[in-house]
Amino acid sequence: MRVDIEDCIERSCPYCVASGAISVNADADAPTPSEHLAGSMRALETLQFDNRFVRSLPGDPNQERHSREVRNALYSRVQPSPVSAPRLLAWSEPLAAELGIQRPRADDDAAVQILAGNALAAGMQPYAARYGGHQFGSWAGQLGDGRAITLGELEGRDGQRVELQLKGAGPTAYSRRSDGRAVLRSSLREFLCSEAMHHLGVPTTRALSLVSTGDQVVRDMLYDGNARAEPGAIVTRVAPSFLRFGNFEILAAHGEHELMRQLLDSLINDQHPELAPARAEVHGIWFETLCRRTALMIAHWMRVGFVHGVMNTDNMSVLGLTIDYGPYGWLEGFDPDWTPNTTDAGQHRYAFGRQPQIALWNLSRLAGALMPLIDRETLEAGLDAYRVEYDRLHRAFYAGKLGIAAIADADDERLLGDLLGLLGEVETDYTIFFRRLAQVPMTASSDDEAQLLEPLDAAFYTAEGRQPEQRARLLDWLLRYRRRLAAGGLDEAARRARMDAHNPKYVPRNYLAQLAIDAAEQGDTSVLERLLQVLQRPYEDQPEHEDLAARRPEWARHRVGCSALSCSS
Length: 569
Ligand code: AMP
Ligand code: MG
Fold this sequence. Notes:
By secondary structure, this protein is of the alpha+beta class. It folds into four domains: 32-241, no CATH class; 257-402, no CATH class; 427-489, no CATH class; 510-556, no CATH class. The chain has 18 helices and eleven strands. Strands 2-8-9-7-6 form a five-stranded antiparallel beta sheet. Helix 9 (282-304) runs antiparallel to helix 10 (355-370). The longest helix has 27 residues, at 376-402. It is globular, with a radius of gyration of 24 Å. The model is unreliable at 1-36 (pLDDT under 50). The chain binds adenosine monophosphate and magnesium ion. Residues 143-147, 174-175, 178-181, 310, 315, 324, 326, 567 line the site of adenosine monophosphate.
């Protein structure tokens, strides 16, 4: 993170020197990074919030909480519902530093009351957004923020504005028959994964805090008639905007075209100042930008092995950010057909390998909604841009994963395709395999077969991967790979560095999140804390945390929460 001279209380601070902002001789009494930051960090309750969305766009005149169909409005103002005994369970130090917000010192701090929905800071004008969506391929009508409430906007230290949004803060106009709450297990999963994704370099919404509410929430986790009370929680999410494809789709569905134009103009104004001043074709340029950003997000998901699990159009961000972490999962054994979401078990619509084409399908639904504003040809050009951009990035990322300069020709494509085929044949950990591939000695002199294969052993879940026939095929592939590397000209150190920057060592594996949940439900947040720390540096070897980079243990193979998740949250 860059430290700016304006932020610094101490003109001779070495961190400003490091950033190149000033040049002085640092002394031994210089402040530590946290002391440095403390000077400009402020308590949440003292901050002044803005709310351009509410200020400039039409809302629902009704401010009550009861569920209803809303028309001719983009949002409904609503106050969060109070909770009984909030406790701060987790706090994102990196995000707080970017925003200049101090960690609350105690659970009875005013800041914790705000993060729990019991109080508001100056300028906050809470609202729930109106949106619809296509769910599992069908139009679902009005959905909306049924349990998310946006509090207001804040300027980060880099000058970028972000919104703070509580998830699980009680009912809104869009709660339908549900309670507006969220349970600890799903909230912890969202908090952990969105911060991990950020550090992995994947575009995502962020999470500032995780608060337990002190109230119980009843959920039937497997939808099998066994409802039980679980601890409730609230995540404070942070993003420049939480608008989804569905915010536009609902307006198209009801013929509210003027409102749609207003929403799009305000989005472009607020989030894409580079596209201003408005020109006639600005809407089309914006759509193409979104298509490209979505391609980038999906290419990253495929690179790191992330499966969103519920890619409905109401869960697709108009900024190309990963949003709404529900029954997501991380690939363990490489399997394009895998989905963690039990609700999707029959169809596998949102399985890992389908994500690129589902994103395109979703963009096409959005394009359909935008027809009153943008002509068909321009929309189709945007969808084409998605295809081209996804293909380009996918190749670039996999070239990085293999440590070659580019997937340059049909031979390279076969090399990659054959490898993925091999990985799918026997249960092979996607993360471990690619990370370890960098360690396979690839100089021409290394002819010892055992030496070539040994680094990859840790990636196999069963003895099948170590059978002679399988080893022979893998060896054959490794020798082809070696010839390709020799032709490419990267030396071993450069190849490894390139691969290590594309292949994370640490990802928030499903079972690790579950271990953090088990502990947190017993009042112990140390497992979560450790994961958060390690996942801040996912591409670095951290020898003391080797256990967090290991294969999923067998006990987790069929345990609910580790291998299968429902939408119940
Ligand atoms: P999700 O599957 O979490 O993306 O949610 C789909 C829709 O259901 C959104 O409109 C959510 O706001 C709504 N929803 C999910 N859970 C709840 C809940 N507990 N209370 C109210 N609305 C909910
Ligand atoms: Mg959602």
